[in-house]
Write a structure and sequence with these properties.
Elements lengths: L9 E2 L4 E6 L7 E4 L5 E2 L3 E6 L2 E10 L14 E2 L7 H14 L3 H8 L13 E5 L9 H12 L5 E2 H8 L3 H10 L2 E5 L20 H16 L3 E7 L5 H14 L3 E5 L3 H15 L4 E3 L5 H12 L5 E4 L11 E7 L16 H12 L2 E6 L4 H8 L4 E5 L10 E6 L13 H13 L2 E5 L8 E4 L15 E4 L4 E4 L5 E3 L13 E4 L3 H11 L5 E4 L7 H12 L5 E4 L12 E6 L13 H13 L10 E6 L5 H8 L2 H15 L5 E10 L2 H13 L2 H4 L4 E13 L2 E11 L4 H9 L9 E6 L5
Parallel strand pairs: 11-16, 11-17, 12-14, 12-15, 13-14, 15-16, 18-28, 19-26, 19-27, 25-26, 27-28
Antiparallel strand pairs: 1-4, 2-3, 2-6, 5-6, 5-7, 8-9, 8-10, 20-24, 21-22, 22-23, 29-31, 29-32, 30-31
Helix pairs in contact: 1-2, 1-10, 3-4, 4-5, 6-7, 8-14, 15-16
Bound molecules: adenosine-5'-diphosphate and zinc ion.
Length: about 725
């Protein structure tokens, strides 16, 4: 179904072309090329039944239908055609993730309104006058325009965002309060100058930057693992790689795991290159996304900074992809098309001949193994920049601490915080649990309050004054009587969450200025960014944070990190738990002592002799990775074997299990490649939004043709009723 395409062909008017649409049909459709012909890769509008849909000319048509019934392409859209290289990337990504091509095309055409001829579009921005008569609708339109600064919108967008009819906008335009303009061209991005003087690099950093420059100049695909302790200047080094790509006239893409990180990064790009790059993320306005999509496609955006979906932008001449914090689990897309952006970056680069830089202080075991095997080049920065030294790390043995009931800050940790307060330095208390308490328990009957739709406990959020399910987001008021036994006032919070820890800290350190950083406590990414800047400027004594603070922020005045529950990640049977805990603890500890003052990290643990805790404390990374690798090798799991999860879901638990059992019994296709099926077992989240979920795990030897076998296995299935099946290649937990 996917012809292999090297040279972009040209099709004369009337020639048969195969068109890929974003409609859920599992095949290409034949059409006749329109008047004037079309190129392979052209974005086109085609008739489908009574509708007109967007498509891409994928290759020559097959002509196995009645030719007289084949319809013509309606028109070719006024955007750069999709390059053969992008077609092949989407095809290979689809094969790898076992995703239908239509879904891949949707990922690649996220910019709405694609193909409106620009000359026909009017755009609307804030005008100079204020109308004499203001209505509520008019106020809303002007508010939207003011909120988005200088941005312009199309008529439909603006009306939709303000929740008004288009005639309100038109009326304002007539009065001059809104300016109507032709938009023949997208606004260009300011030019980034790679030759502005960068920072003077240290010897280590220079060696790394030189090696990357040479590799980029040489051209062709290659991946470099850039490992360096937090604060060693990885960002400085890869910015020099970006500079080199720009000098060669090639485009660069920097992927960041967390939107909250981008503000700081954009400022650094501006300092280095004199202007801000294109910023791609789901929060961007439609107009902005469309602009970036087009500019990237014309080769006019030199550098894109963005979230994982930026990988699907139509780069014309991509020379470099940076995956910062490459070990971060948020690179795995867990909804819709299940892909890992790190792996897709490598795939895309190998097709278009680009360099990939995977940067991390604590690389994933996958990348570590690839570097060990010589598949990736390796660069290492061992020292922190300047006077900064790595924090001293110690465990607080919780078995020896006197803990008053319902408290989580041990006397030892408390003394360390007081000491920092006296010196005017910042402390960070880290707990990886949102909300007030993870469990709400009835003291009369012992029942815990669960979600009505999921197999999960409801978490109390005092800040929101509600109970919330972290699986499906459902909330309900905090009840006064127990839903099971109706006892009054017997419900009690059990265990610590970040809000409860904040409460304890406020009582313990009444004069300290405390900031709480948890993603759910901020209404917008902007508010969160503002808070982070405030902390970095030193305006806070104690930061209390979840996972969010573990990543990449620079807090120069922070000298103490206290981890409330270092054992948390070690429970459960997930084979990746040790790796995650190791990475997270090292990342969090890395927040301390980033400037002149040395830092200390204290880990509260009930099992300080646990091998993972010992490896964290000693910083013996090589030892840790080797031990982890040996265990995984023995178990035959990634990166030394291959895995896939098949998740079945449906509203009827019995039906879902029946299907799982039938599949497990009928596993010829899987056994043929020497692989095994495990399960069915309840999926890691056994029920979401009322749907029961079970999982089959497939474990295959390293070189096995896993995708083909799974395709063969699931192809004959006919899913009854509301049963659904999704395949997760390389699942995050196993
Ligand atoms: P990493 O990405 O490895 O965590 P960064 O690149 O963020 O490290 O560097 C940590 C801090 O040290 C940043 O504030 C950065 O600006 C500063 N820094 C690193 N290298 C240099 C250098 N050669 N000259 C000046 N400042 C530097
Ligand atoms: Zn739920």
């Amino acid at each position: 179904m996917r012809p292999c395409l090297d040279d972009p062909g040209y099709f004369d008017e009337g020639a048969l072309v195969a068109v890929l649409t974003a409609q859920p049909l599992d095949r290409l459709l034949d059409y006749k090329a329109p008047e004037g012909g079309c190129f392979q890769g052209a974005f086109v509008e085609v008739p489908l039944g009574p509708r007109k849909v967007l498509g891409v000319v994928w290759g020559p048509g097959r002509g196995d239908y009645d030719r007289s019934k084949i319809r013509s392409v309606i028109r070719v859209l006024d955007v750069a055609p999709m390059r053969a290289e992008m077609q092949s990337f989407l095809g290979r990504a689809a094969d790898y993730t076992l995703t239908p091509m239509s879904a891949m095309l949707r990922l690649a055409t996220r910019a709405p309104g694609l193909g409106d001829p620009p000359s026909m579009r009017k755009i609307y921005r804030l005008g100079e006058t204020t109308p004499d008569r203001m209505t509520e609708a008019r106020t809303r339109v002007l508010d939207v325009l003011r909120d988005y600064g200088g941005l312009a919108f199309t008529l439909k967008e603006l009306a939709e965002m303000a929740g008004v009819t288009t005639s309100v906008v038109k009326g304002l335009a007539k009065l001059g309060a809104v300016r109507e303009e032709d938009s023949p061209r997208d606004l260009p991005f300011p030019h980034l100058d790679p030759d502005l003087p960068g920072k003077a690099l240290t010897e280590d950093q220079r060696a790394g930057a030189d090696a990357l420059r040479v590799a980029i100049r040489k051209g062709g695909y290659g991946t470099t693992l850039l490992k360096g302790v937090t604060g060693s200047g990885k960002t400085e080094v890869y910015l020099e790689a970006v500079a080199e790509a720009l000098r060669l006239g090639r485009q660069a893409l920097v992927l960041l795991p967390e939107i909250a990180l981008t503000a700081e990064f954009l400022t650094r790009v501006e300092a280095r290159f004199g202007a801000r790059p294109a910023e791609w993320h789901s929060g961007a306005t439609l107009t902005e996304r469309r602009r970036i999509w087009r500019m990237v496609g014309q080769g006019d955006a030199q550098l894109v900074v963005g979230a994982r979906s930026a990988l699907f932008l139509p780069f014309q001449n991509l020379g470099l992809i940076i995956v910062d914090e490459e070990h971060d689990t948020s690179y795995k897309q867990e909804d819709g098309v299940l892909y890992n952006a790190r792996d897709m970056a490598v795939l895309r680069a190998s097709i278009c001949g680009a360099r990939v830089v995977l940067a991390s202080a604590t690389p994933s075991l996958e990348s570590w193994a690839n570097a060990e095997a010589g598949k990736y080049d390796r660069l290492e920065l061992t020292a922190r920049f300047g006077a900064a030294v790595l924090p001293e790390m110690r465990a607080i043995d919780m078995r020896a601490e006197k803990m008053p009931g319902a408290s989580w800050i041990s006397p030892s940790l408390r003394r360390a915080v007081v000491n920092r307060l006296e010196k005017g330095e910042q402390s960070l208390l880290f707990i990886n649990r949102r909300g007030y308490a993870p469990v709400t328990l009835c003291r009369a009957c012992g029942q815990q309050i669960g979600c009505d739709h999921c197999d999960a406990r409801m978490v109390e959020h005092r800040f929101l004054k509600r109970l919330m399910c972290h699986q499906c987001g459902e909330t309900k008021p905090i009840p006064e009587t127990c839903p099971s036994c109706q006892a009054e006032d017997r419900l009690a919070p059990v265990g610590p969450g970040i809000e409860r820890l904040a409460e304890e800290a406020e009582a313990a350190f009444p004069d300290a200025k405390i900031a709480v950083l948890s993603s759910d406590m901020f209404g917008s990414a902007r508010a969160l960014k503002a808070k982070i800047v405030e902390i970095a400027e030193g305006d806070t004594d104690i930061v209390i944070g979840t996972q969010l603070v573990a990543k990449g922020h620079n807090f120069p005045n922070l000298t103490l990190v206290g981890v409330i529950d270092a054992d948390l990640g070690l429970q459960g049977s997930d084979l990746r738990a040790a790796e995650r805990t190791f990475q997270l603890m090292r990342q969090v500890a890395g927040r301390a002592g980033r400037a002149e003052r040395p830092g200390t990290a204290l880990l509260q643990s009930f099992q300080p002799e646990h091998p993972v805790i010992r490896a964290i404390l000693s910083g013996d990374e090589t030892g840790f990775w080797k031990a982890e690798a040996a265990e995984r090798q023995a178990a035959g799991v990634p990166p030394f074997g291959r895995m896939a999860g098949i998740v079945l879901s449906g509203s009827d638990a019995g039906q879902v299990f029946d299907l799982g059992n039938a599949m497990a019994r009928n596993d010829m296709a899987i056994r043929q490649i020497g692989a095994q099926v495990f399960g069915p077992a309840p999926a890691p989240i056994a029920r979401i939004r009322g749907r029961h979920r079970v999982r089959l795990l497939v474990k295959a030897p390293k070189g096995a043709a896993l995708q083909e076998a799974i395709s063969g296995w699931i192809a004959p299935l006919r899913l009854k009723g509301d049963l659904r099946l999704s395949v997760d290649i390389d699942p995050q937990s196993f």
